[in-house]
Amino acid sequence: MKYVSTRGNAPALNFEDVILTGLAADGGLYVPETLPQFSQEEIASWAGLDYEALAFKVMWPFVEGELTQTELETLIAASYKNFRHKAIAPLVQTGANEWVLELFHGPTLAFKDFALQFLGHLLDLVLKKRQQKVVILGATSGDTGSAAIEGCRECENVDIFILHPHQKVSDVQRRQMTTVLEDNVHNIAVKGNFDDCQNIVKRSFADQGFLPEGRQLVAVNSINWARIMAQIVYYFYAALSLGGPHRKVSFSVPTGNFGDIFAGYLAKQMGLPIERLIIATNSNDILHRCLSANDHSRQALQHSLSPSMDIMVSSNFERLLFDLYARDGASIQKLMTDFQQGAMHLSDEALSKARALFASSRVDDEQTKACIAKVYAESEYLLDPHSAIGLLAARENKALCGDGPVVCLATAHPAKFPDAIVAAGVEEAVNLPVHMQDLAEREERCSVLENEARAIQQFICTNLNT
Ligand SMILES: *Cc1c(COP(=O)(O)O)cnc(C)c1O
């Protein structure tokens, strides 16, 4: 399968090259040239498969011709073996026709493990075959960094460098990263904020001349296609568990960079009967404004109780736009240029296509706390703040979901965000799961560096291990 850029002006690549490339050369994002299509009969025949077996069915067409069946099976088995629930992605009922899909049973307690466990093992396999070594460089405000580090700690051909803003991530989030002591894992606390970290990463990707001969940078943020691909699976898994494909299911997704919900959109395009996809945003609401008022303009970042969704611009939205504009790269190029200058406006046609597929809600901190408290009072079920935003958005948009079930994606374990739980007034103590209860006592390793690209690039070069 070939992959093409959303801006229509970069070479088509195969799967292996796509996962080793960040942005396309024209600034676009890579998407499959054509999507695999599954018939209703085929999907129905998957009922009862366990998560790993289903993952194979869904992902195989994307990698066929580049990986062998055994390679993909081995990758999937390795990626989900460290999840602490036998179902991998269990469903919990919280209301009539309302379900929570728990995506937080992976090693770092957030849904990002689904994709980053897989990406780590995939990189290891591909790099071994190519006898190539790479450097992963990423910036994190919390969840991505720890999930990426967990995913790559055993990769023999990868050095991973993760930048976080010094003293600006929570204790649990920092320790989840800095207590991983493998030689190829390098945590850098930058004396600056998250934007400073991201700028250093962007500059380094744009000019990789500082790296030794033969090395290249690889991105692990959600512009990496393999992450999206691995996330398609749980939409099929949830729908099949609730009577799909014979029944249409809706999904409500707490959204930041539009990666997770874009995977749901792809599941629908591949044949899964989905009634509605609900975009749930916090007060950083660019996607909600775009869908409800055709206002896709940049606004100042707001810090919220759901920090993993504190994002001004949702980079994967470009992948949806590409489809809404009949895959015309020139139109996307123009929209993105408009947006650089302040705002983009969707055509009537694109907007009505989007509104037929999606609904949206904006949920602020007060509503988030109220939702955590309400659901706890109703059924003693404790939501993390991100998941609460998804659940409230589901309830607000119920009328658009037909009479089938609505699945709310729970993207993090509540113990990752104890402050929000306390702020919501829920009395119950939120303990970390047993395997993490000694987190505060574990040895940490981290380097504090100045907010300067040159200093960090030098650090990378002197600390390469593999
Ligand atoms: C990353 C993250 C999100 C947002 O996911 P996107 O793919 O960026 O939309 C939501 N919740 C949690 C807990 C996250 O870590």
In short:
Helix content is 42%, strand content 15%.
Question: Would you kindly provide a written description of the structure presented here, covering whatever features stand out?
Answer:
The longest helix has 19 residues. By secondary structure, the protein is α/β, with parallel strands linked by helices. It is globular and about 60 Å long. The mean pLDDT is about 95. It is built from 18 helices and 16 strands. The strands form four sheets. It has a six-stranded mixed sheet with strand order 4-5-15-10-11-14, sandwiched between helices. The site of pyridoxal-5'-phosphate has 16 residues, from helix 10.
Helix/strand layout:
Blueprint: E1 2-5, E2 13-14, H1 15-19, E3 30-32, H2 40-44, H3 51-63, H4 69-80, E4 91-95, E5 98-102, H5 112-130, E6 134-139, H6 143-152, E7 158-165, H7 171-178, E8 185-190, H8 194-206, E9 217-218, H9 225-241, E10 249-254, H10 259-269, E11 274-281, H11 286-293, E12 296-297, H12 317-324, H13 329-340, E13 343-344, H14 348-357, E14 358-362, H15 365-379, H16 385-396, E15 406-410, H17 418-423, E16 447-449, H18 453-463
Parallel strand pairs: 5-15, 6-7, 6-9, 7-8, 8-16, 10-11, 10-15, 11-14
Antiparallel strand pairs: 1-2, 1-3, 4-5, 12-13
Helix pairs in contact: 3-4, 3-9, 4-5, 5-6, 5-9, 6-7, 9-10, 15-16
Bound molecules: pyridoxal-5'-phosphate.
Can you tell me the residue ranges where pLDDT is under 50 for at least 5 consecutive residues? Answer: none
CATH class of the domain at 86-109 and 225-423: Alpha Beta
Spatial order of strands in the largest sheet: 4-5-15-10-11-14
Total helical segments: 18
The overall strand count is 16
Bound molecules: pyridoxal-5'-phosphate
Helix content class: 40-55%
**Class by helix and strand content?**
alpha/beta
Distance between the termini: 31 Å
Calculate the mean pLDDT score and round it: 95
Strand content: 15-25%
Shape: globular
Known CATH architecture of the domain at 86-109 and 225-423: 3-Layer(aba) Sandwich
Largest sheet features: 6 strands, mixed
Quaternary status of these chains?
Answer: single chain
CATH topology of the domain at 86-109 and 225-423: Rossmann fold
Radius of gyration: 21 Å
